[in-house]
Specification:
The complex is a heterodimer of chains A (532) and B (372). Chain A has 532 residues and is an alpha/beta fold. Chain A is built from 18 helices and 22 strands. Chain A is 31% helix and 25% strand. Chain A starts with 12 loop residues before the first helix and ends in a 13-residue tail after the last helix. Chain B is mostly helical and 372 residues long. Classes of the chains: A alpha/beta (532), B mainly alpha (372).
């Protein structure tokens, strides 16, 4: 029984008995898709194919272009060039509504559900076939019957906030299927699941595959891709690096494709002699906002004259680790000390006064007060120091001269220090923040994705500044997703995956060639990881 | 082609733009109010002119305007500081009343025994304590229980109004008042002197101007004021910068409530000389002051100008009610309409709104939601 795109809706009862229903999309192709944002290319000439009864993995680091590509498929963006071809016919998808009516559904990494509503109400949202009178009963019965088909146990009357992450994800999947999705796109689906829930999800996906659905799985976890996907497409910096059948592939090759570089670099850093320890972290466990551990019993030290890098895909605990060290988040267990002074769970101000500076991940959200003037932001964390506020009166003379010095020393391009900080470009805001943090003469500088979103000039400048800190006896903790940056700057590298260090290596250790495997969770080095 | 609305942030806003927006809002607001007058069968030009001549066109008008401006200045500057920290204090009306209650208690009980130079400062101090106390309760609720301050401060208004009514009908009913629900008169030493020939209680006026100077200095020149401004600009950055949100919020609300309390004492000790129903003590000053603070862009010095402007509207509104027979709610219509137009003007100042035709082709550049 075939039906047109408009009547996307319930699967007729006769179909439920058969395992394989008539699926509308037999084959979907993306041909030559390119997309740029403000001149920066996110996708370059991408070709991709997925067929009915197949699970395709989309593998790549953050920033590789996977989510952009899928957002194009889902109708959230329009490609600059290229075509989407369904069953041999080119289609234009100009909105998610059209995408849904064509049979494409997407389960995003961050669920789009209404917490205060029930499962049934969420699924009914946007569903075309709700009857006019008494829709609840019909939808509830349909949901129960539908969920039995794929063994997706769900209670339609429960409210979303009462459900676990795995159950919420099931609601998203059912919602997509209810709206007639043949192709289901899942963006990093196991990032919020427990191992058991992940196993259940895989079972569901395999059943769907057998029923003829097409599935695209976006992931950076090699084990998942190898276990679940029939084929995999690897993206790197917006381009396709290769396609492969997972059966014919080994993890090492895949990892190298994902990371895509020969890992022996020209190290232009001078070797620095071993020095005093500055930061000691022991057995650190930090919980995420949702309550479960994002950082699991992590231990490491950082020394003077060193840049220590934490590599890894975003979302594996980096944010929570940095927040614990800088005092913005409570620590569940473990100890952090700076110069042998315990700073665990101290206030951000006390930690700052102990010599820990922080260049935050989201510069506008955390690093500045956008409406205040440049000179006011120049002293943002230091405003309580005596030199800037005598007897609680601000010493504007000192403040402004400090701001001027900062702006000159760090090449912050601003019309004057009397303009609102939000009028500066992103790169200049970041230079201002970096200058402010470095001028504090910190014992430890924590830099979190410092060059994210910056142009080449600002990036180079910031990296040079970090190296300068290192030469001058400072210690830097650099968290970055940019492997090029990690290798260029760091003396030692730790790879963070799901809250644990997969390995801590000196940057000239040949095992860094496997960094891709470590980032993807497929390799864990023995705990005799190198110190100093 | 179906047009859709495209709203973007305006990137450059000059001072000239701000002045234009303000002027345009007021003119547009007056125009709309003129239409309302027409609907009542009143000549709009005449009516609007009468409002301004009523308040600024005669000595009597000016004196009344200044009298009404006093509480507006006090409350306005207190709200300016609260709003700067994005603490939406809608309870200034009851902070005023609570100040009046505390001040009256001191005046009635200690007044007869103390000379004027002692009792008057004591009353103002008591008023500050009363207002601060009433303002700290919702601040505490917000800090401890994340209770939305818009709702809690608003509800406090009702609680206080009922409490005051209870007092004047019950335990505080005056023995000399023939059973009317007023307290006894304050003793002479506890009343405030007036500028001869007017109702301007100059002690409160001086206090108001002093408060403006002090709070102005606090906001712009002290570390505390800096922290308040950072919290208002970006609470996340404030936390990152080690600013103590709790302590700062409590201090702000103590100040905001306290200066409203000053205004309450001023009204009772200066004008009425006894405590009475909430409506007769404060004719909505706590709410009008919100518009005043907003119009003054939360700048304490501009609060003075904005207060005089709104006091003028209050007085002028009375004038046209009397001479043109318009209903008593006219002034409130005026205030409300002006506020709406001011907000609209501010919105158009900060955002560019354009109607664009739906593009034919699928080529759009949009800001990336997230890369990768």
């Amino acid at each position: 029984m075939k039906w047109s795109g408009e009547s996307a809706g319930l699967v007729p009862r006769s179909c439920w008995q058969q395992l394989k229903c008539m699926i509308k999309i037999e084959k979907l192709e993306m041909a030559g898709i390119s997309k740029s944002f403000h001149g920066i290319p996110a996708n370059r000439d991408i070709d991709l194919t997925v067929s009915s009864g197949e699970i395709l993995g989309l593998l790549g680091e953050n920033g590789a272009g996977k989510t952009t590509l899928m957002n194009i498929l889902y109708g959230l963006y329009q490609p600059d060039s290229g075509e989407i071809i369904i069953n041999g016919r080119a289609v234009r998808i100009s909105s998610p509504l059209e995408s849904i009516s064509l049979g494409i559904g997407m389960v995003h990494q961050h669920f789009m559900l209404v917490d205060n509503h029930t499962v049934a109400e969420n699924i009914a949202l946007g569903y075309k076939k709700t009857p006019f009178l008494f829709p609840q009963k019909k939808i509830e019965t349909d949901i129960v019957a539908f969920s039995r088909k794929f063994n997706l146990e769900i209670d339609p009357l429960k409210k979303i906030w009462q459900l676990s992450a795995g159950e919420q994800q099931r609601v998203e999947i059912i919602k997509a299927l209810f709206n007639g999705a043949d192709l289901l796109i899942l963006d990093e689906p196991t990032s919020v699941l427990t191992p058991q829930e992940a196993r259940d999800l895989f079972r569901v996906l395999r059943d769907m595959k057998k029923a003829g659905h097409l599935i695209i799985l976006i992931s950076h976890k090699l084990d998942e891709i190898m276990a679940l996907c029939d084929r995999v497409t690897v993206l790197q910096k917006g381009r396709i690096v290769g396609h492969a059948h997972t059966a014919a592939m080994d993890k090492k090759t895949l990892a190298r494709m994902m990371v895509g570089r020969d890992v022996i670099f020209d190290i232009q850093r001078e070797k620095m002699p071993p020095s005093d320890r500055v930061l000691q972290v022991t057995g650190l466990t930090v919980n995420s906002d949702k309550g479960y551990p994002a950082v699991k019993e992590v231990s490491f030290d950082i020394y003077k004259n060193e840049i220590f890098g934490i590599a890894g895909v975003s979302g594996n605990g980096q944010r929570e680790l940095v927040e614990a060290i800088t005092g913005l988040r409570q620590v569940a267990a473990g100890k952090i000390s700076v110069n042998d002074r315990d700073i665990t769970n101290r206030s951000p101000r006390k930690i700052y006064d102990s010599g820990v500076s922080h260049v935050p991940e989201e510069r506008i959200k955390f690093g500045i007060a956008p409406g205040l003037y440049v000179y006011e932001n120049a002293i943002l964390k230091q405003h309580h120091l005596r030199k800037y506020s005598k007897n609680s009166l601000l010493a504007y003379g000192n403040i402004k001269s400090h701001a001027k010095k900062l702006v000159d020393a760090f090449q912050v391009l601003a019309p004057s220090i009397n303009v609102q900080t939000k009028d500066l470009s992103g790169g200049n805001i970041q230079k201002l923040i970096l200058g402010r943090e470095i001028s504090h003469d910190p014992v430890l500088l924590v830099a979190s994705h410092p060059t994210y979103g910056l142009d080449v000039g600002a990036t180079e400048y910031l990296r040079k500044q970090l190296l300068k800190q290192r030469m001058a006896g400072g210690a830097v903790l650099l968290v970055s997703e940019d492997l090029e940056e990690i290798f260029e700057l760091c003396d030692r590298i730790a790879v963070l995956f799901q809250g644990e260090f997969m390995g801590i290596l000196k940057s000239d250790d040949p095992r860094t060639a496997d960094i891709g495997l470590m980032m993807a969770g497929s390799l864990r080095l023995p705990a005799a990881g190198v110190a100093g | 082609m179906i047009p859709s609305i495209n709203i973007t942030d305006r990137e450059k806003i000059t001072t000239a733009d701000k002045v234009w927006a303000l002027a345009f809002s007021i003119v547009a607001g007056l125009f709309f109010i003129g239409l309302i007058f027409l609907a009542f069968g009143v000549n709009p030009v005449f009516a609007i002119a009468k409002i301004f001549t009523g308040s600024f066109g005669s000595m009597y008008g000016i004196k009344e305007t200044v009298t009404k401006a006093i509480p507006l200045i006090l409350i306005g500057v207190g709200l300016a500081i609260a709003f700067r920290a994005k603490f939406w204090n809608i309870g200034a009306e009851s902070q005023l009343l609570m100040g009046a209650i505390f001040g009256t208690w001191v005046g009635l009980n200690w007044g007869p025994h103390l000379p004027a130079p002692v009792i008057v400062p004591l009353m103002f101090f008591a008023g500050f304590v009363g207002g601060a106390f009433w303002g700290l309760i919702p601040a505490f609720l917000k800090i401890k229980f994340a209770i939305n301050e818009v709702i809690s401060t608003l509800m406090m208004n009702y609680i206080c109004a009922e409490f005051l009514t209870f007092l004047i009908v019950g335990p505080w009913k005056g023995k000399t008042k023939f059973g009317f629900p007023y307290t006894d008169d304050l003793p002479a030493s506890a009343t405030l002197g007036l500028i001869p020939g007017s109702r301007i209680h100059y002690a409160t006026l001086i206090l108001a101007l002093l408060t403006v100077a002090v709070l102005g200095m606090v906001i712009y020149k002290t570390r505390f004021g800096y922290e308040v401004r950072v919290i208002g600009e970006n609470p996340e950055a404030a936390r990152y910068a080690g600013i103590d949100f709790f302590k700062t919020t409590l201090i702000i609300m103590a100040i905001s409530g306290g200066v409203a309390g000053f205004a309450g004492v001023g009204e009772v000790a200066g004008l009425h000389h006894y405590l009475s129903y909430p409506d007769s003590i404060s004719s909505g000053y706590g709410f009008t002051a919100i518009i005043v603070a907003w119009l003054a862009k939360l700048n304490p010095f501009f609060v003075i100008i904005a207060s005089i402007f709104f006091a003028g509207i209050l007085v002028g509104g009375d004038a046209i009610q009397i001479s043109l027979g318009l209903p008593a709610a006219t002034v409130e219509i005026f205030n409300g309409t002006l506020l709406v137009f001011l907000i609209m003007g501010d919105y158009f100042l900060k955002h560019k709104v354009r109607f664009v035709a739906e593009p034919r082709t699928g080529h759009q550049t949009t800001k990336p939601l997230k890369t990768g």
